[in-house]
Design a protein that fits this description.
Rossmann fold; five-stranded parallel beta sheet; 10 helices; about 30% strand
Length: about 400
């Protein structure tokens, strides 16, 4: 197919990254269409001047006019509510900490939006993510590699850790070889209205959110105790890997379980489901030498357990477990014929430096055993696995 006939639908968010992505594709001669996704209507829980969707859609439209490309808006708010928001509420209610941005990419942008783009005659969709896709041939089949972006400070491969080979085969990332500084310079040179616009923060396509207000739409405040656990409580923190038996790995991979009797009450909170492991802000308890961090939550008893200082041993674990049904292969061929444990790199949150780890398949799932203990391994978050710069798989931490 000739390049001038190759149609690309760009997910225009109203920000500088997607604007430049659209420009670069237009410059290369692609048949580009800009589409803005309207995923949220309720502005009562957003900080209005930070990321109102109406302003974003207007900026996306102005960019499209500047680039002389067709533009339209699609309303995906019903799907977003069902697939992302309801999931968030359910996970927080269970005491887990979901990552809506990873799910938004998997369920909305690279699924529903992709299908809409195909109906518009698209050969590809494109986004402003800082990452790369490279096609290789292996055993006479096309394989798509998801690689980190050139700009290590902006690399967003983590947020795409749940994408499939089919989704990657239909996606372009025009910013993968650029730095953020270069992107802003291009936008300024081309006179794009988004050139100096601040990056949006918060939930995917909702904007910067007052998370407690957002969650309180369905999860009601409920007063409970904040219990402080002393770091000298050795019975919890001496777990280590003597061997790689399933029993021992299961022991060290589980979150620490506390009881109220293990510490003392130092204050009260408004609901255990509003807090997550590793959280520092929002506790509203003073009088300690070092900041307090959430070590664990018990949503059934409505208790938060905290420890003093970022080096509290209750924050650190050596291993984590991912249930088989929650593990996702980006490159299934990479894992074929792997036996026993093998080396891999992993991150358990966005922007974390890649960590050396061992990977082990067992009957019911996957163990990740880290070279160094990790702080705030959080149930419900995603662990992303890398082979060098390539993201090869991911899973929900259990």
């Amino acid at each position: 197919m000739a390049l001038d006939k190759t149609r690309v639908v760009v997910a225009l968010s109203g920000g500088v990254d997607s604007s430049v992505a659209a420009y670069l594709l237009s410059k290369k001669g692609y048949d580009v269409i800009g589409v803005f996704m309207k995923n949220w209507h309720d502005e009562s829980v957003t900080i209005s001047k930070e990321c109102p969707w109406l302003e974003d859609s207007y900026d996306a439209m102005i960019v499209s006019e500047k680039l002389s490309i067709p533009f339209q808006t699609v309303d995906l708010s019903i799907d977003y509510q069902k697939k992302i928001v309801d999931y968030m509420f359910n996970e927080y209610e269970k005491g887990n900490t979901p990552n809506p941005d990873v799910l938004c990419n998997r369920e909305i942008k690279f699924d529903i939006f992709l299908k809409i783009a195909m109906k518009l005659g698209a050969d590809f969709i494109a986004t402003g993510h800082y990452c790369r896709v490279k096609k290789i041939t292996k055993n006479n089949e096309d394989v798509f590699r998801l690689l980190e972006g050139k700009d290590k400070e902006k690399d967003q491969s983590y947020f795409l850790c749940q994408l499939s080979q089919n989704q990657l085969s239909k996606t372009l990332f025009p910013l993968g070889e650029l730095t953020k500084k270069e992107v802003r310079l291009i936008a300024k040179e081309q006179g794009l209205i988004t050139a100096e616009k601040k990056d949006s923060q918060g939930l995917c396509f909702i904007g910067k959110v007052k998370l407690p207000d957002f969650l309180q739409q369905k999860l009601k405040p409920k007063k409970g105790k904040i219990v402080k656990i002393l770091s000298k409580n050795k019975m919890y923190f001496d777990k280590d890997l003597e061997n790689f038996s399933s029993e021992n790995l299961t022991l060290v991979s589980k979150p620490f379980k506390y009881n109220i009797e293990d510490g003392h009450c130092i204050g009260y909170h408004s609901g255990a489901h509003f807090f997550t492991v590793g959280q520092r802000k929002g506790l509203a308890v003073g009088g300690t030498k070092d900041p307090l961090f959430v070590l664990g939550t018990d949503v059934k008893k409505n208790v938060i357990y905290v420890g003093e200082g970022k080096n509290h041993p209750g924050l650190f674990r050596k291993s984590l477990f991912i249930n088989a049904e929650d593990f996702h292969f980006v490159r299934e061929d990479f894992f074929l014929n792997k036996k026993g444990t093998f080396k891999i790199k992993a991150r358990i949150r966005y922007r974390q430096q890649l960590q050396q780890a061992l990977f082990l398949f067992v009957d019911k799932g996957v163990f990740l055993i880290f070279e160094n203990k990790q702080s705030a391994i959080t149930k419900g978050q995603f662990a992303a696995l890398y082979n060098g710069q390539e993201l090869v798989g991911s899973g929900v931490i259990s």
